[in-house]
Structure formats: structure tokens, C-alpha cells
Design brief:
The protein is α/β, with parallel strands linked by helices. It is built from three helices and eight strands. InterPro entries: Glyas_Bleomycin-R_OHBP_Dase (IPR029068), Glyas_Fos-R_dOase_dom (IPR004360), VOC_core (IPR037523).
């Protein structure tokens, strides 16, 4: 047997942005996420790893948490699409109809929140793979891609 006898579980996705408050409003409007807590003071390790961090807030919807934070001197550069990065994050939903509802809610939220968007891409169509898995791809205001996935017969 290789590796450790440890069962990791996903806890949160950290989102570095140049506008914490607008990003929070976006996730509240789009997903109905709630702010669980926020910080404006940080440990020496956090300050070393993330120089210039000024604010951090945890948003939560269901079992998914988003840690939204800014750093002084943010470059405002978007990730290099050809460079090493987490290209997207996959989040499961329980029903195929949830994908339709999320797509509609994304469009409504985009109209409702007047904030700066780094990319102007609309949500994807809902696509179905040969094995029946269905996916919807959307961007947040920072240009970060989220994939919402429905696995028929598997639940979340």
C-alpha cells in the first residue's frame, strides 16, 4: 500500500480578488452564500505567505466554503490560461434541474450586481458527456471558473 492512511476532505476554495466586498456580494446573489466570519488581523505565517492581506471572509453554501481575500498591491492580472494553475473547481449538485436553475440564477445575478468583471464570458450551455454526466461552467467576477456537475444515479 502506498501513501498514508488519511482520508482528506475538501474544506474551502480560497479566492484572491481586488474587491472583497463585491466578490462577497456576487456569491451571496448567485449562490445565496452567507458570510460565516471575517478577519482583518492575521498570524505572522499568513502575513508572510500573503503579504499585504487586509481582509478575509468565509462564505458558505451547503458544504462548500469560499475564503475571499485581498492583498495590497494586487496586480489585477488574470491567471495565465496556459500556465500551471487550478483550471476550475468542480462542485456537485443533486439533480439535473439544479444546473438549469444555477444557469438562470447566474444570468439574474450578473444583471443584479453592478461590479467590475475581469472577463465577459456568459455561462456555458449545459453539456452531457457520453456517460451521462452533465456540466455547467460559469465564471465569477474575478474570472475564476466553477464547474457545477450532476452525476446521474450517484447523487452528490
Amino acid at each position: 500500500m502506498h501513501g498514508l492512511d488519511i482520508a482528506p476532505r475538501f474544506h474551502h476554495l480560497a479566492i484572491q480578488t481586488d474587491d472583497v466586498d463585491s466578490t462577497i456580494r456576487w456569491y451571496q446573489e448567485f449562490l445565496g452564500a452567507t458570510v460565516e466570519w471575517s478577519l482583518a488581523s492575521f498570524s505572522p505565517l499568513t502575513l508572510e505567505r500573503l503579504p499585504g492581506i487586509e481582509k478575509l471572509a468565509e462564505l458558505k453554501k451547503g458544504d462548500v466554503r469560499f475564503h475571499v481575500f485581498d492583498r495590497a498591491g494586487h496586480s489585477k492580472d488574470t491567471p495565465d490560461p496556459l500556465g500551471y494553475q487550478y483550471q476550475h473547481v468542480g462542485i456537485t449538485v443533486d439533480r439535473a434541474e439544479d444546473l438549469v436553475a444555477l444557469r438562470e440564477q447566474w444570468l439574474k445575478a450578473r444583471q443584479a450586481i453592478d461590479i467590475h468583471w475581469t472577463r465577459d464570458d456568459p455561462p456555458s450551455d449545459i453539456v452531457t458527456d457520453p456517460d451521462g454526466m452533465q456540466s455547467l461552467y460559469v465564471l465569477d467576477p474575478n474570472g475564476l471558473e466553477l464547474e457545477f456537475v450532476y452525476f446521474p444515479g450517484a447523487g452528490s
